[in-house]
Amino acid sequence: MHHFKYHNNVLHVEDVDIINIAKDIGTPFYCYSTATLERHYSVLMKAFSNQNSLICYAVKANSNQAVLATIARLGAGMDVVSVGELRRARAVGVPADKIIFAGVGKTRDEMTYALREHILGFNVESTEELEALSSVAVELGEIARVAIRVNPDVDARTHAKISTGKSNDKFGVPFSSALSIYNEAGRLPGIIVNGIHMHIGSQITSLAPFREAFNLMGQLTKNLRHAGHKIQHLDIGGGLGVPYLKNGDLPPSPEDYAAIVRQTIGDLGVKVILEPGRMIAANAGVLVTRVIFVKRTETKLFTVVDAAMNDLIRPTLYDADHEIWPVSESLSTNVNVLQDVVGPICETGDYLAQNRYLPVFRSGDLMAVLTAGAYGAVMASTYNSRLMIPEILVKENMFAVVRPRPTYDHLIGLDCLPSWLS
Ligand code: LLP
């Protein structure tokens, strides 16, 4: 469910006409809906309302501070994976005691920063990291609260690049050695191990892998408690998928997901921490782009637009099919024609859609690439010396630029010449 709809034949974000935003700020741009962000958070919140839980939004999905502030005001905590993300979360006022720091390669500097902030906890992924965190904490005279990420060796049945819970993935410690690692961790100074963390992947569209992994974590909680470990929280990660193409896989509902959590680990008396990213932000954002040329070759129709793989890398990196809607509804009554929607970048992999039936666009037409609110802007680059594109946040009939388009002086001014060339 989202708030991108046609009124008077023009696609609107809530009550704002997309053509007006494009006139004002130019194209391409990302545009987010406050109402959709809020709705997704509250639907999840409601599904878990009868369980002791904390939602820590995965900042990596969309880290624009306006997005973070919108979600934080609803009471969310945050899941961060770098000091940069931690600083962003703190900058918008997320209390440190609602912030979880995850990631397979935290540096000692990052640990120091997070310990000084007194965050809720660290999700630790290896014995090497446990030892480093213990020594940093002792040096600082701080105590680190820790959950160990356990890799359950469960197939999340998602794209290989975003599957994280199989034994040959780089994440977590093996399920089979978890008990001995908890025992070792229990002897280290400067850390208190009070939780278990798991995250088996992203864009998961079936409940079965979640059920399997949660059952294993439930079993582990009992074993660890039996061995004397005080397990108080279970961080079950993120991963709940979203619908991309209209006829694509339908993800489970938040209610069904919450029911699985209740059935598998509900009787353990643990606090459940959730780390949703995509299901909060994805459908809350579109990428708006303008057609530059419509090019026909002997074999194909290419609609060349002003956004490219550097702005939205998901189609080429993960074979993701983002739905595309014309901003003018009248175009959707055209007969759909097989085509590729491509950007100006000098690579064949530069496409937003391949072999897709879409209306025939003309130069100057606007289109919206849907479900682009998560892992869109955050994964953008300046490849081909293209400027990062602006981000807009809409609330009812208002819109604000929440990240302006930089200037070429800004982009080019980031480099500097060494003395022998200047
Ligand atoms: N927790 C951990 C430890 C994670 O690694 C992730 C995502 C999340 C939570 C949030 O997962 P979500 O609820 O968003 O599925 N760039 C890729 C997605 C990478 C996900 C990485 N980890 C994409 O565009 O599909």
Describe, in plain words, how this protein is organized in 3D.
The protein has 422 residues and is of the alpha/beta class. The chain folds into 2 domains: 4-32 and 282-413, Beta Barrel (Lyase, Ornithine Decarboxylase, Chain A, domain 1); 63-276, TIM Barrel. It is 28% helix and 25% strand. The protein has 12 helices and 21 strands. It has helices at residues 18-25, 34-47, 65-72, 83-91, 108-117, 127-140, 178-187, 207-226, 254-265, 278-281, 314-318, 408-412, and strands at 4-7, 10-13, 16-17, 29-33, 53-58, 77-80, 99-101, 121-124, 144-151, 173-174, 191-197, 233-235, 271-274, 285-296, 301-305, 324-326, 337-342, 351-358, 366-369, 391-395, 398-403. Strands 4, 14, 15, 16, 17, 18, 19, 20 and 21 form a 9-stranded mixed sheet that branches. An 8-stranded parallel barrel has the order 5-6-7-8-9-11-12-13, surrounded by 4 helices. A 3-stranded antiparallel sheet has the order 1-2-3. β7 (99-101), α5 (108-117) and β8 (121-124) form a beta-alpha-beta unit. α2 (34-47) packs parallel to α9 (254-265), α5 (108-117) crosses α6 and α8 runs parallel beside α9. The radius of gyration is 23 Å and the shape is globular. The protein starts with a strand and ends in a 10-residue tail after the last helix.
User: How much of the polypeptide forms β-strand, as a percent range?
Assistant: 15-25%
Average pLDDT, to the nearest integer?
Answer: 96
Proportion of residues in helical segments: 25-40%
So what's the oligomer here?
single chain
Termini Cα gap: 55 Å
Record the SSE blueprint.
Elements (H helix, E strand, L loop, with lengths): L3 E4 L2 E4 L2 E2 H8 L3 E5 H14 L5 E6 L6 H8 L4 E4 L2 H9 L7 E3 L6 H10 L3 E4 L2 H14 L3 E8 L21 E2 L3 H10 L3 E7 L9 H20 L6 E3 L18 H12 L5 E4 L3 H4 L3 E12 L4 E5 L8 H5 L5 E3 L10 E6 L8 E8 L7 E4 L21 E5 L2 E6 L4 H5 L10
Parallel strand pairs: 4-20, 5-6, 5-13, 6-7, 7-8, 8-9, 9-10, 9-11, 11-12, 12-13, 15-17
Antiparallel strand pairs: 1-2, 2-3, 4-14, 14-15, 14-19, 16-19, 17-18, 20-21
The structure holds ligand LLP.
